[in-house]
């Protein structure tokens, strides 16, 4: 039996066991979100519940199991991936389950529904009891869903145990327990004592008595600690509680190495991870919380956290102040971004020079996975390298159209000279995090490919060269990246940019560039880092994306209308953009000048690091020639 067939059998057996447990718990549906109890995008293997029960391992999506069907909701980034990985699931463009979806699911399904079948699903019954794990749904989402379900007589039911875990049982991986280390202030630029003081100042402004910290990257940032509990993310399982006179970290003390214990000293209390919820339950009485002096919960905090805090008069829910503090990098962090991207550029030059030599030289057995391994090897030789920042997207031809494609080492395509090759990759360094996408063609590109690539490039340049008044959001400028594509009736199904952590998660908020309305709540500010990555994907043919990391900075303008001040971007990614794929006739004079200036900068900054690799240096010189 092939892998797909085996997956179908496993899914069928698991769903049958899950439905037995649903019946015992008297629920007609069970929701399996993609997040863990910390609302993480990337998961430890023990928390990959949705992948276990559905077979779909994309980072975004929610499965809903009913007595008569099994359904997956995801967004446009994962449509093609879902087609390949799912057997009896329905999926649509909604990444979060909404009321009608839950009601519509309880139908008599005689065949797997596809995207185009969503219109035929209709409400069949009310009074649906929907089981949830309260640690895996945010308090905000739970409240909104409850309000929407109430008129239909339906309700959310918090179960005492996650029933997917009961199906998984002995085969479920154990929770990781990696060593936690201190990040020196020569990389972070600020000590944890100073960070906690700034956080307390924000809490005073909000008239809050304290903050519950549930996001793993926020805990890591606040205490200048890094771990390895989740692949590609230097975080560790922990919670924290900060009041005006105490900071408490909930993780096993035995995990902290000598440096971490010394740096935290007596400034931070250490409690076991499993003591967190009991500690929360005691807080309202200890601190005499009320509606006039509540505790602050971040808007990603789970329903279980809110329930542990008691009545709503004990807490208020808002965006965590740490998210905003962390988003604005200090001078040390910004310089770290610049330097690690130059080093990263040297590894990319070595890799693409090697790949071109292999393909032009006639190699016909190089797989996407083998190519990705070679890139990781070059990166691993760089100073301060701590691992990849996400699984490398090494994709050839049609696979490039799968936006978050990841090659399977056991079964992936051969990289072909006459196909577009898209590589989205990044690394974690002590002084920063990289994320870069480049699209190449080592043979002869078609006119269609060149025109589409050029339209993407024009969108990339539009963002890079943007100047905008203080207070502008990424939501407002997103269309600038799509304008050139729209001229040809083209577009892409993802955001244009996401925040990037400093030796932390490669995706971080609250800001970004995209059509998500949440981005309109977070103006771009000096010191923020964000990706610039427009793309185009021709299903079944090829994918194109050009991605740099840029830093938000003050812009020097001849005027200052309204005394607002103006901002722009500084690109730090140093890797050539493939001019063979550029139709220069489509570029304006300014766009051509931008491309030539960018390549001159790349050549100047990366060349000194390639003195011991003549092939890479020749390749870099060739690819950085002016057009």
Taking all Cα atoms into account, the compactness measure Rg is 25 Å
Q: Give me the CATH architecture of the largest domain, please.
A: Alpha-Beta Complex
**Main pleated sheet:** 6 strands, mixed
The helix content is 25-40%
Write down the domain tally: 3
- Give the mean pLDDT: 90
Strand order of the largest sheet: 4-3-2-1-5-6
Distance between the terminal alpha carbons, to the nearest Å? 53 Å
Secondary-structure-derived class: alpha+beta
Helical run tally = 19
Give the DSSP E fraction (strand runs of 2 or more residues).
15-25%
Question: What topology does this entry show?
Answer:
Elements: H1 3-24, E1 29-32, H2 49-54, E2 62-66, E3 70-73, H3 79-85, E4 89-90, H4 99-104, E5 129-132, H5 139-149, E6 155-158, H6 163-168, E7 181-182, H7 185-188, H8 192-205, E8 210-213, H9 216-223, E9 225-226, E10 239-243, E11 247-250, H10 258-264, E12 269-271, H11 276-287, E13 295-298, H12 303-308, E14 315-318, H13 321-327, H14 331-360, H15 368-380, E15 385-388, E16 393-396, E17 421-425, E18 427-429, E19 432-433, E20 436-440, H16 447-464, E21 468-469, H17 474-487, E22 497-499, E23 508-513, E24 529-532, E25 535-538, E26 542-545, E27 548-554, E28 566-571, H18 589-606, H19 614-623
Parallel strand pairs: 1-5, 3-4, 5-6, 8-13, 11-12, 13-14
Antiparallel strand pairs: 1-2, 2-3, 7-9, 8-10, 10-11, 15-18, 16-17, 17-20, 18-19, 21-28, 22-23, 24-27, 25-26, 27-28
Helix pairs in contact: 14-15, 14-19, 16-17
């Amino acid at each position: 039996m092939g892998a797909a067939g085996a997956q179908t059998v496993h899914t069928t057996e698991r769903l049958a066991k899950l439905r037995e447990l649903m019946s015992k718990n008297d629920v007609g549906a069970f929701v399996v979100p993609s997040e863990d109890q910390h609302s993480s995008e990337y998961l430890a293997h023990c928390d990959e519940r949705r992948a276990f029960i559905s077979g779909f391992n994309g980072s975004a999506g929610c499965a809903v199991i009913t007595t008569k069907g099994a359904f997956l909701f995801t967004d446009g980034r994962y449509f093609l991936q879902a087609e390949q990985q799912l057997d009896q699931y329905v999926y649509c463009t909604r990444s979060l389950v909404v009321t009608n979806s839950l009601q519509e699911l309880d139908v008599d399904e005689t065949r797997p529904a596809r995207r185009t079948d969503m219109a035929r699903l209709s409400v069949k019954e009310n009074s649906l009891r929907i089981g949830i794990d309260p640690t895996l749904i945010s308090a905000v989402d739970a409240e909104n869903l409850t309000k929407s379900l109430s008129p239909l007589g339906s309700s959310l039911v918090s179960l005492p145990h996650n029933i997917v875990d009961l199906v998984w049982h002995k085969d479920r991986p154990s929770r990781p327990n990696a060593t936690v280390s201190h990040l020196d202030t020569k990389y972070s630029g600020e000590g944890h004592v100073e960070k906690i003081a700034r956080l307390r100042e924000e809490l005073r402004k909000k008239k809050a008595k304290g903050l519950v910290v549930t996001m793993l990257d926020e805990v890591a940032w606040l205490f200048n600690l890094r771990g390895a509990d989740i692949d590609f993310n230097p975080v560790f399982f922990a919670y924290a509680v900060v009041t005006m006179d105490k900071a408490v970290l909930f993780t096993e003390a035995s995990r902290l190495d000598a440096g971490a214990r010394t740096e935290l000293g007596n400034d931070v209390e250490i409690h076991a991870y499993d003591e967190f919820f009991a500690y929360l339950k005691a807080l309202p009485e200890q601190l005499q919380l009320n509606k006039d002096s509540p505790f602050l919960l971040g808007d990603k905090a789970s329903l279980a956290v809110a329930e542990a805090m008691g009545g709503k008069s004990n807490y208020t829910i808002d965006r965590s102040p740490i998210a905003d503090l962390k988003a604005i990098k200090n001078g040390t962090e910004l310089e770290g971004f610049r330097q690690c991207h130059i080093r990263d550029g040297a590894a990319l030059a070595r890799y693409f020079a090697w790949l071109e030599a292999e393909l032009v030289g006639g190699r016909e057995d190089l797989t996407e996975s083998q190519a990705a391994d070679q890139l990781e090897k070059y990166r691993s030789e760089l100073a301060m390298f701590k691992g990849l920042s996400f699984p490398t997207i090494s994709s050839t031809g049609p696979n490039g159209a799968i936006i978050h494609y990841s090659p399977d080492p056991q079964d992936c395509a051969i990289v072909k000279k006459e196909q577009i090759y898209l590589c989205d990759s990044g690394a974690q360094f002590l002084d920063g995090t990289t994320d870069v996408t480049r699209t190449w063609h080592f043979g002869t590109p078609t006119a269609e490919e060149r025109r589409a690539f050029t339209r993407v490039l024009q969108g990339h340049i539009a963002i890079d060269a943007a100047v905008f008044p203080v207070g502008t959001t990424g939501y407002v400028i997103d269309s600038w990246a799509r304008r050139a594509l729209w001229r040809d009736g083209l577009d892409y199904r993802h955001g244009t940019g996401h925040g990037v952590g400093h030796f932390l998660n490669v995706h971080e908020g609250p800001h970004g560039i995209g059509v998500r309305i949440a981005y309109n709540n977070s103006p771009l500010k000096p010191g923020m880092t964000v990706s610039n990555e427009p793309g185009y994907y021709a299903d079944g043919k090829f994918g194109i994306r050009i991605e740099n990391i840029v830093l938000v900075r003050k812009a020097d303008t001849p005027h200052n209308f309204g005394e607002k001040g103006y901002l722009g971007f500084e690109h730090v990614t140093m890797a050539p953009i493939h001019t063979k794929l550029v139709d220069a006739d489509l570029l304006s004079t300014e766009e051509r000048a931008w491309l030539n200036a960018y390549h001159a900068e790349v050549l100047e900054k990366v060349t000194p690091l390639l003195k011991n690799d003549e092939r890479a240096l020749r390749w870099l010189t060739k690819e950085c020639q002016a057009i």
